[in-house]
Amino acid sequence: MTQDKKIAWEKFTAIYDQKxxxxxxxxEEEEDESFQDSYDEESEExxxxxxxxxxxxxxxxxxxxxxxxxxxxxxxYNMFDCxxxxxxxxxxxxxxxxxxxxxxxxxxxxxxxxxxxxxxIEKMFNFSCVRMQIQDKLCTNLDSIELDINDIVIxxxxxxxxxxxxxxxxxxxxxxNGEIETIKNSEFESETDYQIRLKTLKSLKNGNxxxxxxx
Length: 215
Prior knowledge:
By secondary structure, this protein is an alpha+beta fold. The protein has 2 domains: 1-142, no CATH class; 145-215, no CATH class. It has 6 helices and 11 strands. The protein has helices at residues 33-46, 76-79, 93-101, 127-138, 151-164, 191-203, and strands spanning 7-11, 15-25, 49-52, 55-63, 66-69, 81-87, 106-113, 116-121, 170-175, 180-184, 207-211. Helix 4 runs antiparallel to helix 5 (151-164). The protein is globular, with a radius of gyration of 23 Å.
């Protein structure tokens, strides 16, 4: 019996590592007017410094691509929406080529182990939409979603998800003609009203539905 290919997703969170900088002990300064002026200009920079054994140290983030300063704009953690995918199948070169060339929205990719990979999603793309593409191409656990995924459909779904992604519960109905309808629980007066509308969408035969808990 062939094992269903599945991916479990984990949000990447920052791992901090404080590296001591050789700039000498921090000396206290008198709080006069000139100091106040300079403090106003440098306050944002100083907020990113902490003291450790009387030395200034800067917070650094450990990423799959190495260490980056917390405020570094080019850190993957700051540039992308970062996720780790855990698979129950070995990641092949073919899988990597699919992730690199056939999935819209992936800005960076690194294989961490034969069963784990890191992706960074570009700011104009939604994780749920990227995740759907990946699972459509690599997995067999999409029983509740049978979409004809093409560039036009993906673009519409991605745009729709931007408007509802922060909602606790949501659904996107994709019609066979490419039309999109979205609902979110905050639009309804009660949970019952939301569930009634959701049930109606699920019963339609002229399209398919994606929900917050179906991916």
